[in-house]
Amino acid sequence: MGRIAIVIVVIAAFFLGAVSFWWAQSLWRGYEAGDDLLPAPSPPNPAGSLPLQTLVARLNLPPDSRLLEVELEREDGRLLYEIEVLLPGGRVREYYVDPRSGEVVHEEGEAAHLEENHP
């Protein structure tokens, strides 16, 4: 009976190894092709909030700005989107926006951008 158990364990290990190798190969091919393994998750949309596209459009960003990251955070008990933007010239700016009103509550980054867009 001991020999049968050993044979079964060896066959199962071989099968699991073959499946793992096949799976790793398919993931590697996707990686080399530039495919993302997982789709980028969209940030949660709190009830009663404005669409994220509307909030970003209201920031009046200069042309050629790039959206780097959006996070939903709670600061001082208030739910805010942190919208991180790469501005032309390589500057990074973070906007803290109320998702319901679209109000920019706080900004962080280089002061040059404040002078350009917010007189």
Characterise this structure.
- The structure is a single chain.
- With 119 residues, this protein is of the alpha+beta class.
- The chain has 2 domains: 1-39; 52-117, SHC Adaptor Protein (2-Layer Sandwich).
- It is 37% helix and 26% strand.
- The protein is built from 3 helices and 4 strands.
- The protein has helices at 2-32, 52-57, 111-117, and strands spanning 66-75, 78-86, 92-97, 104-109.
- Strands 1-2-3-4 form a 4-stranded antiparallel beta sheet, with no helix packed on it.
- The longest helix is centred in the N-terminal third of the chain and has 31 residues, at 2-32.
- The protein is elongated.
- 9% of the residues are buried.
Number of alpha- plus pi-helical segments: 3
CATH class of the largest domain: Alpha Beta
Largest sheet report: 4 strands, antiparallel
Q: Briefly note the structural class of the backbone.
A: alpha+beta
Mean pLDDT: 80
- The percent range for strand residues is 25-35%
Oligomeric form of this entry?
single chain
Radius of gyration: 25 Å
| Count of discrete structural domains | 2
Give the strand tally. Answer: 4
Our measurement of the CA-to-CA distance between the termini, rounded to an integer number of angstroms, reads: 85 Å
CATH architecture title of the largest domain: 2-Layer Sandwich
Strand order of the largest sheet: 1-2-3-4
Summarize the helix and strand pattern as letters. HHEEEEH
Low-confidence stretches: 112-116
CATH fold node name of the largest domain: SHC Adaptor Protein
Q: Which percent range fits the helix content?
A: 25-40%
> Judging from the principal axes of the Cα atoms, what is the shape?
elongated
